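To the wet lab folks,

You asked to see what we're planning to order before we commit. Fair enough. Below is the target structure as tokens, and below that is the sequence we designed to fit it. If anything looks off to you, flag it before the synthesis order goes out.
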């Protein structure tokens, strides 16, 4: 590969979501002059949402883009270098680590990976059209907006059942639309859902169309895969819970990943199986998946990196 130029940093952070920016704020204040490579989605997943009501410090809620822009400004205030670059290849076999973005090379003594994860969607046109206006992939984030309303959860794994159960805290009725005639999840979780009177399971069914107007989603049409019959559920919200994909393909050959392809870190720390490489945020977390937990582990990664560098 013809390398155009190269830049060395003590710490490089991959990703500009809450985990990446928080790691940068801490690393910069520890005098490590970090660099963030933002990736294509500068600001991360929260730039795809409007109101964030559960990030502490914003009692009236804050727009997702505004929150991420404030985190960026805070990182810049302490002289973080921020480059809009998507990493295309890494070489973690020796130090300094090599990080490539096309024909650009970056090297670093320590590396913090905060490349996040992406929610999987069904991929149908009407779903895309109403994303953020009725269609969501996070009940913890958006369930509250559907108080007293009817909603549907799509999926049949543990996280779908968990989301359905959670949504009954404020929704009038919750449909679980599942394409098969049995669940994959744990027995205990299934029992909890089947016993819940607010939940109705729509077996053997898939989404036919998300229906709506300028105000957003107004109804949902599902189709039974066995009979071909369609039915309107009367729901104003749809929560897609068919899994997440962590952004770890760059590290598949070098870092230890779990069975769902999340980066494995040492318990209670952000250390990976490679000395000097730390991971934080949603790329390590298939359970909580929140901005505040991502920011929390971003802080941990910067402190872990700083202490590790001091030992070298
Ligand atoms: C629609 C929606 C609404 C949400 N609402 C809320 C909410 O209200 N409250 C809440 O707490 N959480 C919410 N979440 C979840 C929250 O957004 C995530 O938990 C959080 O953003 C995870 O932060 P992160 O820093 O780990 O990664 P992400 O935010 O996923 O950011 C990952 C970063 O890595 C970068 N990246 C990826 N690949 C590469 C690469 N090859 N090279 C360089 N960079 C790369 C991306 O560009 C991006 O900047 C919501 C999520 C979605 C999708």
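Sequence we intend to order:
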């Amino acid at each position: 590969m013809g390398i155009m130029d190269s830049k060395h940093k003590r710490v490089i952070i991959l990703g500009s979501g809450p985990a990446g920016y928080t790691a940068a704020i801490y690393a910069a204040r520890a005098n490590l002059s970090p660099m963030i490579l933002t990736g294509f989605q500068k600001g991360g997943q929260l730039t795809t949402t409007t109101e964030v009501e559960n990030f502490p410090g914003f009692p009236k809620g804050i727009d997702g883009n505004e929150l991420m822009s404030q985190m960026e400004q805070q990182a810049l205030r302490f002289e973080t270098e921020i480059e809009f670059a998507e990493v295309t290849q890494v070489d973690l076999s020796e130090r300094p680590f090599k990080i490539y973005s096309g024909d650009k090379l970056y090297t670093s003594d320590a590396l913090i990976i905060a490349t996040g994860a992406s929610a999987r969607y069904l991929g149908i046109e009407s779903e895309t059209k109403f994303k953020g206006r009725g269609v969501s992939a996070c009940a913890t984030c958006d369930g509250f907006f559907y108080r007293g309303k009817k909603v549907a959860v799509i999926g049949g794994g543990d996280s779908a059942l968990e989301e359905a159960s959670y949504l009954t805290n404020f929704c009038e009725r919750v449909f679980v639309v599942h394409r098969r005639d049995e669940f994959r999840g744990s027995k205990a979780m299934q029992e909890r859902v089947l016993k819940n009177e607010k939940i109705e399971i729509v077996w053997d069914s898939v989404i036919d169309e998300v229906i709506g107007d300028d105000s957003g989603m107004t109804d949902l049409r599902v189709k039974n895969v066995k009979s071909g019959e369609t039915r309107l559920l009367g729901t104003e919200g749809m929560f897609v819970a068919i899994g997440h994909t962590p952004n770890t393909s760059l590290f598949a050959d070098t870092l230890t990943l779990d069975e769902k392809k999340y980066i494995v870190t040492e318990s209670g720390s952000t250390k990976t199986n490679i000395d000097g490489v730390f991971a934080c945020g949603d790329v390590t977390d298939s359970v909580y998946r929140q901005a505040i937990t991502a920011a929390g582990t971003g802080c941990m990664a910067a402190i872990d990196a700083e202490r590790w560098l001091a030992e070298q």
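Structural context that might help your review: Residues 223 and 229 are 6 Å apart (CA to CA). The domain at 121-240 is CATH 3.50.50.60 (FAD/NAD(P)-binding domain).

Thanks,
Computational group
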